[in-house]
Amino acid sequence: MTPPTTDAVAAGPQLAADRLDAFARDGYLVLPGFLPADLVARLRPEVDRWVDQGLRARSIAACIDPEQHPFPEVMELELPAHGELIAHPPLLDLIAQVMDGDFAFHHLHSDRQAPDVPGKAWHHDYERGPGTDRSAPMVHALHYLDGLEPDVSALAVLPGSHRAAADKAGLAHRGTDRLPGEAVLDSLPAGSTVLLHSALFHARRPQPSGTGRPRYFVDASYCSTRTVWPPVKPYWRHMLARARELGLGGPRWPELFAERHFSEYGTAP
């Protein structure tokens, strides 16, 4: 395993200047065991429900065919622990620091990936195209409920790649190949979080044997309020409205679920 850019947050969610510099330079921070054990314990059965009851599949269908499925019957953020995770105060405190300003919630994905899940090619997830102003940051919080170890798919990142205005699929032709300068994360304890600048190239490297244990994974994205962002879900207004109804985030984060930070679905800002 390549040594990661790591911050131990036991003393509180305040990043030292060198950690902020590391995030700016490398585009990621590793937070081992960041999530509280009780939250992880409540998230895991919600992920099982999300997958086993077909809720994830219906959520995908609502994105693929919004005319037939205007919005899913249940969204991830309506699952209590998932809603709590989105607005987990220590997480939002860290995001405010790496964003250097206010931010909004963008979207959430949750999955239980089988041991033989295929790899995911090198890509990034920054939602503004290479020809647009990319000075406003966007981050993804990748939560590994059971951690990472050799019998599950590893996360590979390409430090510093977020500083180039590249297309999302600019390295897709390399598949999940090893790249010069990459860092591989394959040994993290339960409840660990990897905070990525969304423009950082990363890949899911498949577990070579195709056997082992499932990979419980929740991916939450947040975007700076200094610009307007394209939403990735056609029912994004319904999603944000429901989050406000549920009181997620509370009064401390009034912009977290505000609609004004987004353009219309399917249009570039």
What is the secondary structure topology, with strand pairs?
Elements: H1 17-26, E1 28-31, H2 37-52, H3 55-64, H4 80-86, H5 89-99, E2 103-113, E3 120-123, E4 138-144, E5 154-157, E6 183-185, E7 192-197, E8 202-205, E9 215-224, H6 236-245
Helix pairs in contact: 2-4
Question: How would you describe this structure to a colleague?
Answer:
The chain is of the alpha+beta class and 269 residues long. The chain has one domain: Jelly Rolls (Sandwich), CATH 2.60.120. Helices cover 24% and strands 20% of the residues. The strands form two sheets. The protein has a five-stranded antiparallel β-sheet. It has a four-stranded antiparallel β-sheet with strand order 3-8-5-6, with no helix packed on it. The relative contact order is 0.22.
Query: What is the CATH class name?
Result: Mainly Beta
CATH topology: Jelly Rolls
Number of helices: 6
CATH superfamily: q2cbj1_9rhob like domain
Low-confidence parts, pLDDT < 50 over ≥5 residues? 6-12
The shape, in one word, is globular
Counting helices, strands and paired strands, the structural category is: alpha+beta
